[in-house]
Specification:
two-stranded antiparallel sheet; 218 residues; Arc Repressor Mutant, subunit A; Spore_cortex_SleB; signal; 10 helices; sporulation; mainly alpha; Spore cortex-lytic enzyme; hydrolase activity
Length: 218
């Protein structure tokens, strides 16, 4: 019996040590730099693009991990409560990607803003972009930019083809401002033009405010 207990305790101790070792290995893997100062390539370009969306990287995207990129990464890590190393590890990259968008997604949102709100004030254009971001956060809607924009009957510009026009500079600026946290719509999930809206359902939504020709609602 004593021999059995001794063997059991030995096995248990080994399992605990193995678990600690694997846990340390996973933690080390997560904190290991993917890209750091001195590196070059597509991953660096993607990091710069995403940092630029947040207003943390001001230079041209060149795919070179220089001192300015390192400073921008460190600032991002401070803002999001990550270990400040100035290098991009797996956790930093995942957090960065969770709070920013790809080039294609930026393009889709800019096209929507231009199709839906060109001619509106800049605030009104940012508000339209913010509605897309608010829908991404809501369980009522799909969780990708493409699915939100192309959801059936979601946006007039998609239905009538205006979405496919080339967006101007203000449309891109509006998207970037929304990504950086400006939400003139105050959390709206919907908007409509009261002069042309015929849907009784959209009129039933709780209204938040009016910006230019759009009423924004929950």
């Amino acid at each position: 019996m004593n021999l059995y207990k001794a063997l059991l305790m030995t096995a248990l101790g080994f399992a605990i040590m193995l678990g600690m070792t694997l846990g340390d290995a996973h933690q080390a893997e997560a904190s290991e730099a993917i890209v750091q100062q001195g590196d070059r390539g597509g991953v660096v370009w993607d990091v710069q693009h995403r940092l630029q969306q947040l207003g943390l990287y001001q230079l041209s995207m060149d795919g070179v991990y220089g001192s300015q990129t390192r400073q921008a990464v460190a600032q991002f890590q401070r803002q999001y409560g990550l270990p400040v190393t100035g290098s991009v590890d797996l956790k930093t990259l995942r957090t960065l990607r969770a709070n920013t968008f790809t080039v294609d997604e930026i393009e889709m949102m800019a096209k929507l803003v231009y199709g839906e709100a060109r001619g509106e004030s800049f605030e009104g254009q940012v508000a339209v972009a913010a509605v897309v971001l608010n829908r991404l956060k809501s369980p009522k809607f799909p969780n990708t930019v493409k699915e939100v924009i192309f959801e059936p009957r979601a946006f007039t510009a998609v239905a009538d083809g205006q979405y496919y026009q080339r967006p101007n500079r203000d449309a891109y600026r509006a998207v970037y401002h929304a990504i950086r946290g400006w939400d003139p719509s105050e959390g709206a999930l919907y908007y409509f033009n009261p002069d042309v809206a015929t849907s009784g359902w959209i009129w039933s939504r709780p209204q938040i405010k009016r910006i230019d020709n759009h009423i924004f609602a929950r």
